[in-house]
C-alpha cells in the first residue's frame, strides 16, 4: 500500500523550486526561498520496547520513509538508543549525527540524537548537557525527575549564508513525571538560549512532556523583561488559534488526538515561520512511532 502522507510540505517544496526557477538563481527571491530551513522533531520510541506489532523492527523502514518524505535539514530525535542512532545515520544519506547516551555520556541509555545535512551546514562546535543542577556531569539527576534527562546541541554555519550568524540547534527530552524537573529544565535551556542568542540564531526541538497550559511551557516561551520571549513556539505562530486534536502523542495510531501538544519546535526572533504542522503520516491506520513528528519550515530574516 502506498505511503499516505497528508502534508502540505511536498507541495510547498515544489512551489519553492518553481519560484526559484522563475525568478532566476541570482534574484533576491531565489536566495530567500532556497535559504529556508526545514526542521523536524521526532520522538521515535526506544527500540527495545515490547511493542508487539509496533516493534522497532517492524516500523523502522516506515519511519525512515516518513523522515525522507519531509527531507529535513535539521532533525532532532528523542528516545533514541545507540543502534537506532546508527540505523538512522546509515539510512539517511547525507546527514551527520551527534548523540550520546544519557546514562554515561557515551553509549548507555536513551539519546537526544540530532542530525544535520552536511552539504548544507558546517559544524563549528557541539556537545551535550544534562537537565540537572550539575549539567556538565553525565548521568546527573536533580529535582523530582524520575529518569536522567539531557540535551544535545550543535553550532552550525549555513553554507547558503556563510556571512550570517551561525545557528545553534538544541534537541532535548524532558521528564515525563517530575513537574518541577520539567520547569527547571525549561529554565535551564532558556538560559542557554539567551546566552546563545547573543551571537547565534537558535532552533530548539524536543519532547517536552508538557502542553501549552503548563508551567514548563510558560517558563520556556514566556516573555522576558523586554516583553518578548527569547524563543517562540513555531507551531503557534503558524496556527495562532488553538484547535482541537493538536495532540502529538499517537500511541501508534493514525488518528489525530485531543491530548496536549507535548512536542515543540522553538525558534529565536531571527526566523520567520513559513509553515509548521503535525505530521500524521500513517499506513493501514498505524503511525511509525508513538509520537507524531513536529515539522517547521523557517526562513532566516
Highlighted features:
7 helices, globular, 6-stranded mixed sheet, disordered N terminus, alpha+beta, 301 residues
* Gyration radius, in Å: 18 Å
Helix content: 25-40%
Q: What order do the SSEs take from the amino end to the carboxyl end, as H and E?
A: HHEHEHEEEEEHEHEHEEE
* Global outline: globular
| DSSP summary: helix tally | 7
The count of strands amounts to 12
Oligomer: single chain
Physical arrangement of strands within the biggest beta sheet: 3-4-2-1-12-11
Helix-strand makeup class: alpha+beta
Roughly what fraction of the amino acids lie in strands? Answer: 25-35%
The major sheet is characterized as: 6 strands, mixed
Q: What value does the average pLDDT take?
A: 91
| End-to-end distance | 41 Å
Any low-confidence stretches, pLDDT <50, length ≥5?
1-32
Amino acid at each position: 500500500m502506498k505511503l499516505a502522507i497528508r502534508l502540505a510540505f511536498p507541495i510547498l517544496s515544489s512551489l519553492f523550486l518553481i519560484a526559484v526557477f522563475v525568478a532566476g538563481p541570482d534574484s533576491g527571491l531565489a536566495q530567500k526561498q532556497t535559504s529556508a530551513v526545514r526542521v523536524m522533531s521526532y520522538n521515535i520510541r526506544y527500540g527495545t520496547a515490547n511493542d508487539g506489532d509496533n516493534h522497532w523492527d517492524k516500523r523502522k523502514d516506515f519511519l525512515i520513509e516518513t523522515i525522507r518524505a519531509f527531507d529535513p535539514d535539521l532533525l532532532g530525535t528523542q528516545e533514541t538508543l545507540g543502534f537506532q542512532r546508527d540505523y538512522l545515520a546509515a539510512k539517511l544519506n547525507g546527514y551527520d549525527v551527534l548523540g550520546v547516551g544519557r546514562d554515561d555520556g557515551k553509549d548507555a541509555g536513551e539519546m537526544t540524537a540530532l542530525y544535520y545535512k552536511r552539504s548544507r551546514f558546517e559544524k563549528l562546535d557541539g556537545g551535550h548537557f544534562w537537565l540537572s543542577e550539575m549539567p556538565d556531569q553525565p548521568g546527573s539527576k536533580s529535582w523530582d525527575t524520575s529518569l536522567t534527562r539531557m540535551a544535545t546541541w550543535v553550532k552550525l554555519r549555513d553554507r547558503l549564508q556563510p556571512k550570517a550568524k551561525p545557528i545553534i540547534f538544541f534537541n532535548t527530552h524532558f521528564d515525563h513525571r517530575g513537574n518541577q524537573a520539567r520547569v527547571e529544565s525549561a529554565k535551564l535551556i532558556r538560559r542557554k538560549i539567551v546566552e546563545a542568542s547573543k551571537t547565534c540564531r537558535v532552533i530548539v526541538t524536543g519532547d517536552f512532556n508538557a502542553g501549552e497550559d503548563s508551567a514548563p511551557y510558560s517558563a520556556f516561551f514566556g516573555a522576558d523583561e523586554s516583553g518578548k520571549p527569547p524563543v517562540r513556539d513555531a507551531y503557534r505562530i503558524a496556527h495562532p488559534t488553538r484547535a482541537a486534536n493538536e495532540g502529538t502523542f499517537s500511541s501508534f495510531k493514525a488518528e489525530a488526538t485531543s491530548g496536549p501538544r507535548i512536542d515543540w519546535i522553538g525558534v529565536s526572533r531571527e526566523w520567520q515561520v513559513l509553515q509548521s504542522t503535525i505530521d500524521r503520516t500513517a499506513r493501514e491506520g498505524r503511525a511509525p512511532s508513538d509520537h507524531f513528528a513536529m515539522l517547521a519550515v523557517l526562513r532566516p530574516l
